[in-house]
Amino acid sequence: MLKLERVDACYGSFKALDAIDMTIEAGELVVLLGANGAGKTTLFNTVSGLHRPSAGRINVAGRDVTGAKPSALVASGVVQCPEGRKLFPDMSVMKNLWLGGYVHRGDKRAMQKTLDDILAMFPILAEKKNEAAGSLSGGQQQMVAIGRALMGRPKLLLLDEPSLGLAPLIVKQVFETVAEINAAGTTVLLAEQNAYAALKIASRAYVIENGRLTIEGDRESMLGNEAVRKAYIGA
Ligand code: ATP
């Protein structure tokens, strides 16, 4: 589904991603662990076309998409759900969701079908569909952000820190939702600081440090890895 080969990304002369090699198979749920500033968002923005790589190749579903525009990547099934949700707070929940469906290019029937599926998945959003997105709780706003991404019918969903700032009980619900989306067939790359909860639903994980992937492995090996436990999981 996704293959990165020796990908670099820079901000001016600062190299934020350094020779990233990453492969994600269709159907996987893979976690990207890293501290603040390690390069997770830059990696996501580079895959989704928001940031141009300065070296390397990016392949999605067998096609070379290096340097492709975000709109082309959305059309090929890569959808990013950004850190901090980035909703339009004064617009209704419904309008926020509808915006994520622009990829359907005016096919209102397809959009309505996707919207119905999403509202069935998040009944609370159906209840609050006419309320301003900014008036919802943090967890509900995260559901809107995830729902908006799903409106693009992603094959590969890039989820950037969906649990950020949420209460533990809500975090649990968010992870259950992510597992459900993956079980329904969407490949997921999940950036998280909440390492233990993320690893519990993932098949594999990578660790990024200072723009380099330093550790990778399946869930069990990551959970048992001393360095991973020390840096990201704690006791
Ligand atoms: P966080 O969890 O804090 O968002 P992150 O792992 O997503 O962290 P990035 O946001 O990708 O990290 O940042 C990687 C590095 O690139 C950091 O050193 C950051 O300061 C730098 N950086 C990010 N965006 C820019 C920018 N627009 N201009 C210059 N440097 C940037």
Automatic annotation (TrEMBL):
SUPFAM superfamilies: P-loop containing nucleoside triphosphate hydrolases. The keyword Signal does not apply. GO terms for biological process: L-amino acid transport. Residues 2-235 form the ABC transporter domain. It comes from the Bacteria. Signal peptide: none annotated. PROSITE patterns: ABC_TRANSPORTER_1 (PS00211), ABC_TRANSPORTER_2 (PS50893). GO terms for molecular function: ATP binding; ATP hydrolysis activity; branched-chain amino acid transmembrane transporter activity. SMART domains: AAA (SM00382). Keywords: Amino-acid transport, ATP-binding, Nucleotide-binding, Transport. Belongs to the ABC transporter superfamily. PANTHER family: HIGH-AFFINITY BRANCHED-CHAIN AMINO ACID TRANSPORT ATP-BINDING PROTEIN LIVF. This is Amino acid ABC transporter ATPase. It comes from Salinisphaera japonica YTM-1.
